[in-house]
Amino acid sequence: MLGKTYADVLNLLHYEFTLPETEESWKKRQHLLAQLSDIFEKRKDNSTIPTDFVQKVKAILPHIVTTAGSERTTLSAQACRALKNIAKHFQTQIQSQLDLLLPGLIAICGSTKTVNQKNANDAIIIICEHAGYSPRLFYHVCAAFKDNRIPPRTYAPEWLRILIDTYRSQMDREKDSPACEKAIFQGLTDGQVKVRENTRAAFWRFYSYDPRAARAILDNLNTHAQKALKADPHNPDRPSLATAASQLNAANAPARPKSALASIKAQNKERMAQSQESSQQRGLTPEPMKSDDFKIFGSMDDAEKKPTLLSAPVRRRIVATPMPSASSAQRPESRGRAVTSASSVAKDNTANTVPETVPKSSYETVTKSSYETIKSDGKENAMVIRPRKKRSPKRSPRRSPEHDRLASEKKTLMMAMEALRRSSLDALGYRRLRKLIEENPGALIIRYAQYRELFELLINNMVSLDMITESREKRANINHPAYNTHTILITLVHLFQQYPLWPEPQPGMTLSALLIARCNHSSSYASVLSAIDDGAFLLCSHTGPTLLPTIDAVLDTLEQIEYILTTNDPIVTPKSTDTLLHNSLQSLASDFGPEKPSFANRLPIVMDFGLKILNALLIRVVSRNENLYEIQEDRLAAFAEHLLATYTSIIKRAVMNFCINLHAVIKPEPRFYKYFKKESDKNLIHYYVDVAGSPY
Predict the structure, then answer these.
(1) Lower CB density within 10 Å: C or N end of the chain?
(2) From the CB of residue 440, how many other CB atoms can be counted at a distance below 10 Å?
(3) 297 by DSSP, 3-state: which?
(4) What confidence score (pLDDT) does residue 80 get?
(5) pLDDT value at position 105?
(6) Rg of the chain over CA atoms, in angstroms?
(7) Computed from CA positions of residues 246, 251, 254, 259, in that sequence, does the dihedral angle turn out positive or negative?
(8) CA 522 to mean position of chain CA atoms
(9) Is residue 443 left, alpha or beta, with left meaning phi > 0 and alpha meaning psi from -120 to 50?
(10) Sign of torsion over alpha carbons 33, 37, 42, 44
(11) Contact 676, 685 (CB under 8 A)
């Protein structure tokens, strides 16, 4: 039952924050935070806040900030609401907590959910207005201008403007003014348009506080940035829009002539003179032929009605008719009508004259003798002599759309690899890279060097041994810690399936990465754990020439993980007999809670997963009829003896399966039992080997 007084609410909250955030606990945590906000909102004005209440709230303040970054939107909203009420009512009493509040809220402003961004932004605005003047407040706000994420840089100008308005009289000109100057210049030269627009308002507010520093910022900007800054609505010296528009129109308007009618008449006279000159030159210069000029001549009766031809060159219609065959040339009467001879046609045509005005059309300048020479007997003009035209060189064949698409996809792949080199690829970028590899199987990568580089970049960005001891607050993606690992793992599986002839850059590096990923996400989403298990099974079943080096790499990684987890948790260790029950009960504890998970809780899960991989590899050795090196046998046997002495109850079955598979590899059998010193271990292994080999 939830408490009614503030002491009950704070005590219950303190207890809930000591537990991990689960499906059952987050709703209770949300109701408690809502009750805490109600206590603040129902407080009477100017009433005294109890000292013990302030101390208890400050004690759970770090947990409230952590809860504000939760993936559950309603829980995050209630946490931000509580933070706003705390800052509004405590006022200057939270100045000692600014280094805790502001970095966490600024990080939430850069989250992937818009609702969480808005809630965190509102909380920071309340803190800026009510926390009182503090150099740490200016420091964190100015540092937000250099944040790697876009939303914090977008909100930061508004925070700085509030600080300048609220604490103008208390600001230190020697420290705060240079910090504001650098931050504003950073915002005005930012690559995002929204950041630059918001910073302009903060600039003019800073200009009213320190004009000299503001002019220094303006002088260091380029011409376009200066014009945009001066045209900003927050500029107090900016002219009104009506005045600016009238000045602009007056400057751009052309000079009017003294008489508009005289100008129009002069233009008409010019056009008439140009048309007359062009008509005079038209009879001397032939125009190019058009498709409308190729028309069939009419009958001979129509030709007699035409005026007689002049001796000067005239415009003549050109008819393009097919060349007659030899048989048709000898039989002109086969055309179905009586046709006069070629000489009579020529004679009649010479009697025609050209009209004075000829409609504009293309024509050929042909003399009488040349026309008669060109024309064939019994036919109209069958061919025309034209000047040879210059043709442009042949174009290369057009590329297919598929070729262009692949070229674009390859360019996108190169951009993704460049982002992987800088470790700046976000969750959406990993998803697009996975889709790129999935939709273009075996088509984007044609060289092993590129395949090797992409493979190594994916492995390095997926996991590292340093991530095992890293706290949750320092992880790259606070909202989805397992999302990128899942996407990268699926991409690696696609690469394995699409390029089966190309081995991984280093033997066993993928299986080692899966071990580390299983350690970092010991109780993550079911899809991530399933992807890790499926990927390990696929790699173990397809390992070929590099089988023996792969076993060495997996064994090295497993020993390193065990050492790191055991060393960093001095209280709970696998060798402690009184904590075995604690380990077995807490092995499924989530590592996504607000507290850093206990390392020993993950150790049995990781060791069991590593032993499954080693068992699969040893079975692969037997199926391929290969033999281990003597040094490998010594290492594996020593590791088995260590497991028998350390894990006496938690993963006992997995350890015995490992001993059975190792017994099948190390020959002869007496040599295998020499590795174990305790007689009880030998008897136990012998029993399990007999049971495994029995048909019943």
Answers:
(1) C
(2) 16
(3) coil
(4) 92
(5) 92
(6) 44
(7) positive
(8) 28
(9) alpha
(10) positive
(11) yes
Q: In whole angstroms, how far apart are CA 653 and each of 514, 612, 648, 649?
A: 22, 11, 10, 8
Count CB atoms within 10 A of the CB of residue 64.
23
CA atoms within 13 A on the CB side of 326: 0
- Residue 128 and residue 141 in contact, taking contact as beta carbons nearer than 8 Å: yes
Helix (H, G, I), strand (E, B) or coil at 325: coil
Query: How many residues would you count in the chain?
Result: 696
Q: Place 569 in a pLDDT band, splitting at 50, 70 and 90.
A: low
> Cα(142)–Cα(186) distance, rounded to whole angstroms?
10
What is the average pLDDT across 280-300?
A: 47
Q: Report pLDDT for 525.
A: 60
DSSP annotation of 175: T
What 3-state class would DSSP assign to 302?
Answer: helix
Smallest CA-to-CA distance from 639 within 616, 609, 595, 607 is with 607
Whether residue 542 contacts residue 496, with contact meaning beta carbons closer than 8 Å, is answered with: yes
**CB-CB contact of 432 with 481 (8 Å):** no
Q: DSSP letters along 326-350, please?
A: HHHHH-GGGGSS----HHHHHHHHH
**C-alpha angle with apex 309: 304 to 315, nearest 5 degrees?**
105
pLDDT digits (tens, 9 = 90+) for 432-471: 888 998 888 888 888 888 888 898 888 888 877 666 665 5
- Residue 572 phi/psi, 5-degree rounding, is -105, 115
What distance separates the 2 farthest-apart alpha carbons in the chain? 135
* Mean pLDDT, all residues of the chain: 74
| Cross-strand partners of 352 | 308
pTM (predicted TM-score):
0.42
Q: Specify the CATH class of 6-237 in words.
A: mainly alpha
Q: What are phi and psi of 552, to 5 degrees?
A: -60, -45
Paired tokens of 14: 């303190």
Q: What value does the mean pLDDT take over residues 63-90? A: 89
Q: Nearest-CA neighbor of 303 among 357, 261, 262, 339?
A: 339
- Tell me how far CA of residue 556 lies from CA of 200, 361, 553, in angstroms: 56, 91, 5
**Torsion over CA of 470, 474, 479 and 480, rounded to 10 degrees?**
-40
DSSP annotation of 306 reads S
Instruction: Tell me the C-alpha distance between 60 and 17, whole Å.
Output: 8
Task: With beta carbons less than 8 A apart as the criterion, state whether 660 and 690 touch.
Answer: no
Taking only the tens place, the pLDDT of each residue in 43-64 is 887 778 888 888 888 888 888 9
Contact 645, 653 (CB under 8 A): no
Residues of the chain with CATH 1.25.10.10: 6-237
- Please report the DSSP string for 101-170 in residue order: HHHHHHHHHTSS-HHHHHHHHHHHHHHHHHS---HHHHHHHHHGGG-SSHHHHHHHHHHHHHHHHHSTTT
| C-alpha span between 555 and 512 (Å, rounded) | 9
Say how far apart CA 128 and CA 134 lie, in whole Å.
Answer: 10
Q: pLDDT grade, residue 430 (50/70/90)?
A: confident
> What residues contact residue 203 under an 8 Å CB cut-off, 6+ apart?
184, 188, 214, 217, 229, 232
pLDDT digit string, tens, across residues 176-226 = 888 899 999 989 988 888 899 999 989 998 888 888 888 898 888 888 888
In this prediction, residues 623-629 reach a mean pLDDT of: 87
What is d(CA 244, CA 225) in angstroms, rounded to the nearest whole number?
Answer: 19
Q: Tell me how far CA of residue 7 lies from CA of 11, 18, 81, 86, 509, in angstroms.
A: 6, 17, 19, 16, 54
**Bridge partners for 308 per DSSP:** 352
